[in-house]
Specification:
With 370 residues, the protein is an alpha/beta fold. The chain has a domain of 238 residues: Alkaline Phosphatase, subunit A (3-Layer(aba) Sandwich). It has 13 helices and nine strands. The strands form three sheets. A five-stranded mixed beta sheet has the order 2-9-6-7-8, sandwiched between helices. Helix 7 links the parallel strand 6 and strand 7.
Length: 370
């Protein structure tokens, strides 16, 4: 997410950034050539701690670059993010080190490639001594673990480093640093089944991978667990029932099971809940002298495509990006192999338009939350 010039005195920016044209004075060419590097210890340690800026790190899930008006979507309804980008340093030259969730997130957290941190696929976890047998003399994972002693057992995250530098560290929303489908006996705090079986998890709020305080969401769409799921079931049981009815209800296209109108009101949607928790953390900062690192992990617009009914109805009437359902035969052979492989499907062309409209609705809700 972009950070405004007015807020850059308060917000730290991590990543390879390109200023807007004219933002850097030509009288200072050395300054214009400097680029901070994601996850760099030098970046953390060399920053002027006399300023001790607050840092808010907002990460959405499976969101296309061109889903925002500021990045070229002619029909996006993202006024807040567009306005922010208009007065910001914009992060627009980034290549992910891995195309799926957990390896990419582990790289964001550590500044390392998957070959260095060991998270090569979803279901792997960022190693910590509390989860795996390890060799204390070498600080490496033990040989009886599948990683075979090849990866450090306590790779620091940027939250670890900022905590050591005196920051208050908090996270709201999705982290996904350990597997959500793990058996509860393995002890992973992001195990969905553990949250369903162990009522005491509702009282757990960290520490977790360098964050002293966490408010977790687990999963995507409306059927999200973690602290959010506990909150919804206990505080809004009618909304919990409504989301379950919607998830089990009819679909506009039988071939696309993850495309439907959600059952939650906007006020109880996970995106809204995450924004509310983040605002609570910020309000509490008034009584804390430490600078703040706040991670805000929003699971949308990852499928299922299930926006609240109010937004679904509104965006069904909106224009959206053009539909492209190209035949994979004209592409490299790997595309055809995927299309012909197990679990693949050809969705109706007319469903793609609705998928795009519902995605636009989910991105709009993110814009409102920010």
């Amino acid at each position: 997410m972009p950070a405004s010039r007015a807020s850059r005195r308060r917000l730290g920016v991590i990543g390879s950034l390109r200023p807007n044209r004219g933002a850097v004075s030509q009288a200072d060419p050395e300054r214009s050539s400097r680029r901070p590097v994601a996850g760099s210890r030098r970046l953390v340690c060399s920053a002027s701690m006399s300023r001790r800026p607050h840092i808010v790190f907002i990460l959405t899930d499976q969101q296309r670059y061109d889903s925002l008006g500021c990045n070229g979507h002619p029909h996006a309804v993202t006024p807040h993010l567009d306005s922010l980008a208009g007065e910001s340093v914009v992060f627009d030259r980034c290549l992910t080190p891995n195309s799926v969730c957990m390896p990419s997130r582990a790289s964001i957290m550590t500044g390392l490639y998957p070959s260095a941190h060991g998270v090569w696929q979803n279901g792997c976890f960022l190693a910590r001594a509390c989860y795996v047998p390890w060799l204390s003399d070498k600080e490496m994972i033990g040989a009886d673990h599948p990683a075979r002693g090849t990866h450090p057992s306590n790779i620091p995250t940027f939250a670890d480093l900022l905590g050591q530098a005196g920051y208050r560290t908090a996270a709201a929303g999705k982290l996904h640093l350990t597997p959500t489908q793990a058996h509860p006996a393995l002890g992973f705090e992001e195990s969905v089944q553990r949250w369903r079986d162990d009522a005491s998890m509702a009282e757990w709020h960290g520490p977790y991978f360098g964050f002293d305080e966490v408010h977790l969401t687990l999963g995507h769409g409306e059927m999200i667990d973690g602290h959010y799921g506990q909150w919804l079931r206990t505080r809004h049981p009618d909304q919990d029932a409504a989301r379950r009815r919607a998830a089990a209800g009819p679909r506009p296209f039988a071939e696309v099971s993850q495309l439907y109108v959600g059952g939650l009101d906007i006020a109880c949607h996970p995106t809204t809940w995450i924004a509310d928790r983040a605002c609570e953390v910020i309000r509490q900062q008034e009584s804390d002298d430490r600078p703040l690192l706040l991670w805000v992990g929003i699971p949308d617009p990852h499928h299922p495509f299930s926006p609240p009914a109010e937004l679904a109805r509104e965006f069904e009437t909106h224009a959206t990006a053009g539909v492209c359902a190209a035949d994979p035969s004209g592409k490299p052979s790997a595309y055809a192999d995927i299309a012909a492989g197990p679990g693949s499907m050809r969705v109706p062309t007319e469903s793609i338009r609705l998928i795009r409209q519902y995605t636009d609705a989910m991105v709009h809700l993110i814009d409102r939350a920010v």
